[in-house]
Each structure stands twice: as C-alpha cells, then as structure tokens.
C-alpha cells in the first residue's frame, strides 16, 4: 500500500531538500506534484484540495522563508498535515467503566468485518481481556459458521443464534417467542449472555451488503439502539478507492460510527480510502488489518503512517 504515492512524494521532495531558498514558483510546482500524486492515489478531491491548500499557505509563510533549510521545512509541514489528515493522535478503544465493553462492527459485505472480529478478539485476549463474539449477521447463510471458525482460531467463544454451538457453552436457546432469525434479538441476547458469564468485551458482527442498502442500514441502527455499544467500528476495505467517501458517509449517517478500521492495507492498492476517510468523517482510524490471519492487526498510528508514506 502507498508504494507509488510514497515514491512520487519522495522524488518531489528530493528536488527541494537541498535548496537554500525557495521561490513561490518552487512552492507552486511542489504543491502541484503533491496534488497529482494524491489524486493518482485515489484520495478524495475535497481532501486533496484542503490538504494542498493548507500546505501551500504554510509553505509560503514565515516558517519556511526564515528557515535555515526551507526545503526540509516544507517536508516537515507536509508530514504534519498528513498526520492531521490521518486523524492526528492515536485513539485507543474506549473501554466501558462497567464491563462488558460492547463493540459493534459495521461495513459492506466483503470489507473484512468478520475476519477483523477475530483479530480484535485475539488482540484483546492477548491484553488480558475475556472477549466473546456475537454473530448478528444473519443475512448470509454462511456468516454465522464463518464467525464461529474465526472465534475458534482466535481462541474465544462465539454466541451464535443456533442451538448447540456457543464455544462450548449452552446455546442461546430462545427464552421467549423471538426467533433466531432476528439479529437485533441475537445481539441483545449476546450482550446479556456476556454479562451473565462475565466476559468483559462483546464484539458484535453485523450484516453487510455489497452496496449501501437502506434495510440493512436500518437493521444496523436498530442493533446499535438495542445494545448501546461503547464503540461502533466501521470496517472499510482500503482498496475501495473513490467509493470510500460515499460509503463512509452513508455508514456515518446510518450508524454514526465512533472509529474506523482500514482493512486489506497489505494490498497494493493506491490507498486513497486510508487518506480520505478520517478527514471526511472526522472519525479516527483506530486499527489496520494487514492480512488474512488472526494476528494481522495493528493499532493505527497516524504519525507512523505519515512517516511510512514520506520516508
Ligand atoms: P465481511 O463480509 O465484511 O465479514 O468480510 P470477511 O471478513 O469475510 O473478508 C472478506 C475477504 O477478505 C476474505 O476472503 C478475507 O480473508 C479477506 N480479508 C479480510 N481482511 C483482510 C486483510 O486485512 N488483508 C487481506 N489480504 N485480506 C483480508
């Protein structure tokens, strides 16, 4: 990810670094190169415009004209602004004062939600928590089984809407008249079970579609209302390109997510989603998913990502 963006920016800055003085035209041509590199990386147009506007304003100001090494100073500005676009500070998971902490996952089908549920469970288990997964994606026939497999790999239990398979515990047998087919009921019952069994983190997987779909968005909103999660994480495939903005805004409107997970960052896509979503939604990127295995999860650090792009 970001290889081509990184190469383009590095070669732009190579021309600048050694310069003793920078003319306005030096700065303008640098900004133009940055703009083109970002557009080619699929970064959303409004983000590109704002970013280059801020860099230009600062680059033409006193901090550069009075710097001992103006070229270096411009690179520093680009770095700082990039950290800003990526969300600024690292944002950690908000854990509930009174467990369990409830984390709901939302996103398009295929975005990597279910895989991420296992990664997050393992990540939290390794930190000494006792997570449980809840399978509230009842849209795809395979989704429940897939989550059970993911849970087993992560070494955590799974609360599933089918009798006889809750990670070694009793099934979520319906104690009322609700059917197993109701994801809101499953999500609520899963959180209830976690409380009874004293798990301290509940990770709820929800259904996605290949495109934003009103019914499913409403279902996700209903689940959110029913379980009152501490975090709603929006999982987005970093390879999605220009569609990132539209998708992220639709999910923000639908479920008002609290954080973003960038998945498939191990791919060689151009990475525009990564560089657009935090800025457009104002929500922090909290994790990156970097492969298909349970261990392939990283806490997202905007400063480290910016350095990786600019180094
Ligand atoms: P869901 O429909 O949102 O639950 O998506 P899945 O978790 O089923 O993932 C869809 C596909 O993407 C699967 O084939 C996963 O193995 C793959 N996948 C998920 N996360 C990653 C990742 O970080 N990197 C790569 N390379 N593949 C991933």
TrEMBL record:
**Domain SRP54-type proteins GTP-binding per the UniProt entry, residue ranges:** 100-311
- EC number, as in UniProt: 3.6.5.4
Q: Which residues bind GTP?
A: 107-114, 205-209, 263-266
> Domain named AAA+ ATPase: which ranges?
99-311
Give yes or no: UniProt keyword Nucleotide-binding: yes
The Signal recognition particle SRP54 helical bundle domain is annotated at: 1-86
Gene Ontology process terms (BP) = SRP-dependent cotranslational protein targeting to membrane
The protein's UniProt keywords, in alphabetical order, are: Cytoplasm, GTP-binding, Hydrolase, Nucleotide-binding, Ribonucleoprotein, RNA-binding, Signal recognition particle
Reactions it catalyzes: GTP + H2O = GDP + phosphate + H(+)
Top enzyme class: hydrolase
Q: Where in the cell is it found?
A: Cytoplasm
Q: What GO MF annotations does this protein's record show? A: 7S RNA binding; GTP binding; GTPase activity
A single GO cellular-component term on record: signal recognition particle
The primary site where this protein sits is cytoplasm
Q: How does it assemble?
A: Part of the signal recognition particle protein translocation system, which is composed of SRP and FtsY.
Q: What family is reported?
A: Belongs to the GTP-binding SRP family. SRP54 subfamily.
Q: What is this protein called?
A: Signal recognition particle protein
